[in-house]
Structure formats: C-alpha cells, structure tokens
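Lay summary. Proteins are chains of building blocks that fold into shapes, and those shapes determine what they do. In this project we predict the shape from the chain. Here is one chain we studied, written as its sequence of building blocks.
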Amino acid sequence: MNFYSNLAVLSGILFIATHTATAFEIKIPVIRFTQWKDLSKKQKKAARKLGYKLKSWNKPGSAPFEFRTWWDNTNYDKNGVTNETTPFKNNAKKLGFTEDMWDCWMNHYDYPWDVLETYEIMPSVVALGWNQTMWESGGALVPESDNKWWDEFTDAEKTAAVAMCYTQNSWDENKLSSFCMDSPRGLRDTPTGVRNQSCNWVANDVSRCGMKNGGFSIHCPNTCGSCKENKCVDTNNQFFWKTRVRDEVRLYKRCPFVDSPVKCDRPGIKLTCPAQCDEKCEQKEI
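And here is the predicted shape, written in a compact code that computers can read:
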C-alpha cells in the first residue's frame, strides 16, 4: 500500500521519455499479472533473468528492481554500477514490456520531484497528499494516504492512485491470485449522450464505478477494486459487439448471446463474460 520515493535516478533523467501518459492510456502488461504457474517456459526463463523468483513474481511490488525505472534498470546493475550490457531490456521486452509500461505499472513513476512537474501525473501525486519535502525524504516522511488501505480511500484518492497505475490489488500488495482484468469492451452509451464508456473512461473518475446500477463495477473489476466479488461475474449490461458492415451501426449484446466457443474467442469476450466463457471461472464455481 505504499508509494515509493527512491530517488536513484540521477544522470539518467534526460533519457526518460518526453511524454508520460497515465493509466489507463498505457496498455497493461498482461503477462506480468499472470500467475507463475500459467507462464510458458520461455516466459519463466525471461522472468528469472530479470531477477524474479516464484514468490516475487506472484506478489507485484516485492522485487527490488521494480522500484527502479526502466532507464535505471537498463543502465545500472543491481549494485548501482553503470553497466550498459544489463540483460534487463531484452528480457523485459520478451515479457511484453515497453518503457512506458514498466515505469507506469511496475515503478509507478518514481521520478525526481522536479521531473514530475513536467508530466501530467503531478496532480495525482499532489492529490494523494505528497509535497516535495515528503517526496524527497526517501520514505522518512509520507502523507496520510500512504498508510491507508484501498477501501479507506475517497473516490478522489482512488482516481489519483489509478492514474499512477495502482489498482486495489497492487496498492494493497495482494498476491497475483487476487488480481483480475477489466473488459476491453465498451458499454452502451447513455441516453444523455456520454460516449466511450470504456473502463478507461471509468478510470478517469472512479466514482463512475457505481453507474449503471453498479454495472461498471462488474465490467471493470480491476479499475473499481472489485476483483474479489466480480472476477467471475458476467457483465450485466449491453456491451459493444461489432460495427455492422452494411450501415456502420454499432451493435451491442448481452452475455447470454455469447453461447458458443466461437463467440467466446472474440477479443475481450472472456473478460466480459467470464462465467460463461472462462473455464477457470467455471471450474471455480463447481
């Protein structure tokens, strides 16, 4: 449940990407949030070369190198010595990481304060109660939010944490068995004209999780911190299915429509209708 303020970044700061997008603009590294037992042999090999072991892999936030930025991991060895031949970059890429993904979902933008001011994430850092003195104290001073569990957050604090690529499971430092993923499918637009009702839209204001009679909390369990109760629950609202070719009308369906393996294999459907399509959920319920 901690924000980390390890200011190890020194000369490397000029090499940080010139634009930092915030969650959920940056794709989630799905492989990293897959349990160790479900990784392929090649994925396990790459993870080991990064320094992961079964326990540290299955508990995000427990590996020391996750506290370092992509640039630091690429240019310094574990002892902080300059080493431009570190195997970090190649093995991280084998696991699907990019620099933005690592600095967001693993490192949570642990940049120096003066650099944070140049990025869009500063409002979120401040919203969680941080100031420059705290941030630069190396953990000696922390805001009240740093000692809270996710359920103790206000909606504004949750929204700020999500912008820093935290979810309930990562903030509370849960094991991977507790994690889940949002549906990538958007829900039907409201009569008031609000469009693009995806989980990214919900992430911009976590109070939206209660909209559609709580339907977003089911549809976006990762963002809304409801994996425990909704990991294997089908979306109960109409979700985007496809755009009809002949007239470009957007078609929406409900999970009972997904009544065959072929339909379940469409991108994102297993995350939208897990009870109906995900064998692991079916086995859990038996």
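What the prediction tells us: The chain has a mean pLDDT of 86.
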